[in-house]
Amino acid sequence: MADARRYICANYSPGIVPELHLIAGPNGSGKSSFVLDVRNGERVIDYTIPGVINPDEIASSMNPANPDASALAAGREALVQRKAALANGGSFAIETTFSGNSERQLIAAAKAAGYVVTMTYIALDNPEDNVSRVDRRAAIERRTVAAEDVRRRYERSLDNVATIADELDELHVFDNSGKNFEHVLTMQRGHITTLAEVIPAWVERAFGSQLAGSVRGPDLAERRRRRVDMMNLSDRRSLEISLAVARELDRNPNAVLVKGLTNIARWRDQVGTHPHLQEWEKVIRRGPRAVRAVLTRLDHRSRQLRSSSPFAGVLSEEVRLEAIARASDVAEPAP
Questions:
Q1: SS3 for 7?
Q2: Long-range pairs for 202-206 at CB < 8 Å and ≥24 separation?
Q3: CB 166, CB 159: distance < 8 Å
Q4: Are strands 92-96 and 116-123 parallel, antiparallel or unpaired?
Q5: Which segments within the chain are labelled E, that is strand?
Q6: Cα gap 78→57, rounded to integer Å
Q7: Per-domain residue ranges for the chain?
Q8: What is the pTM assigned to this prediction?
Q9: How far apart are CA 151 and CA 131, in angstroms?
Q10: Residue-wise pLDDT tens for the chain (335 aa)?
């Protein structure tokens, strides 16, 4: 990539190789603000973003007074523009929550057509912050997204980017949890080339395998150990039991998932619905990878869900007691 200042250009085509660039991240993460800052020259980045096909902008142009009313038509028009760009072999970018399957299909089609595929991924550390930002934006721009949809897309988006990272020619990851966009890492074909000193929890969650394989992998592993050491005993016990469940999940995924769904159905009949059980059911239905993530990660949401784990009965009593014993065997923190 060139070192010179770059900007968004609708007709940009880098040499003879066209580029598909995805500006991705959950609702409310600041994707449009990032693009606008770059477009206006208020943010300098060392890579180029081609012209953006944005359904929200299309909807606003169709119906400035009520963009939501034109959302479906704008989505269809955006798909038409994507297909036309691919057919013409021109570089283009899209904004996406990256929470569904259509973008993965687009990536596959672009690669088959000889495109370079790059991504700018932006997220916040807590989905509730995304909900708050979407609500504030709705009051100004008259674009609404239901809170439950924001939360669901947040989880799916992080899971999806984790599985696609190694397939991207280049990935730039920004954290927008604070007042400014912080460039956390750059990855080329799954290999980390730049990495910030401070790694947000959501980045560790999404890119844990790549981080573990980086030159700073041992440092990050030590930081995880320290975070575990600082947990209270109840949280450590919950984590150790969950790690044991994760190992059983690796050995026999179908049995573990069925047990979880069976327990949820039984508890629902006994005590009614509960938000954590509802969320666990969604996680389980997304498959072993999503379940393993919640069982092993240290972010706030995962710790909350583990406090209401539906996997009672997966472990033998012996294995469960061994996990509890490990939780009590914590080394003294280094000075």
A1: coil
A2: 202/123, 202/124, 202/125, 202/158, 202/175, 202/299, 203/173, 203/175, 204/297, 204/298, 204/299, 205/158, 205/162, 205/293, 205/297, 205/299, 205/302, 206/123, 206/158, 206/159, 206/161, 206/162, 206/165
A3: no
A4: unpaired
A5: 19-24, 52-53, 92-96, 116-123, 170-175, 182-188, 191-195
A6: 10
A7: 19-222, 231-328
A8: 0.65
A9: 7
A10: 332 223 344 444 444 689 999 999 999 999 999 998 988 888 878 888 888 988 878 888 888 887 778 888 888 898 899 889 999 998 999 999 999 888 999 999 999 999 999 999 999 988 888 998 998 887 666 667 888 899 889 989 998 998 899 899 999 999 999 888 999 999 998 888 888 887 888 898 888 878 876 756 566 666 667 667 677 888 888 889 999 999 999 899 999 999 999 999 999 888 777 778 888 998 898 788 788 888 987 777 788 888 889 999 999 999 999 988 988 775 433 33
Task: Specify the CATH number for 19-222; select among 2.40.240.10, 3.40.50.880, 3.40.50.300, 2.10.220.10.
Answer: 3.40.50.300
177: Cα within 13 Å, side-chain hemisphere: 14
SS3 content of the chain, % helix, strand, coil (to 5): 55, 15, 30
Angstrom CA distances, 116 to 103, 120, 184, 189, 315, stand at 15, 14, 22, 11, 46
List the Cα angle 279/284/285 in 5-degree steps.
100
> Taking the C-alpha atoms of 96, 208, 38 and 128 in order, what is their torsion angle to the nearest 10 degrees?
60
For every residue of 265-332, DSSP letters joined together read HHHHHHH---HHHHHHHHHHHT-HHHHHHHHH--SHHHHHHHTT-S-TTSS-HHHHHHHHHHHH--PP
**What is the distance between the alpha carbons of residues 68 and 147, in angstroms, rounded to a whole number?**
16
In angstroms, the CA 49 to CA 32 distance is 13
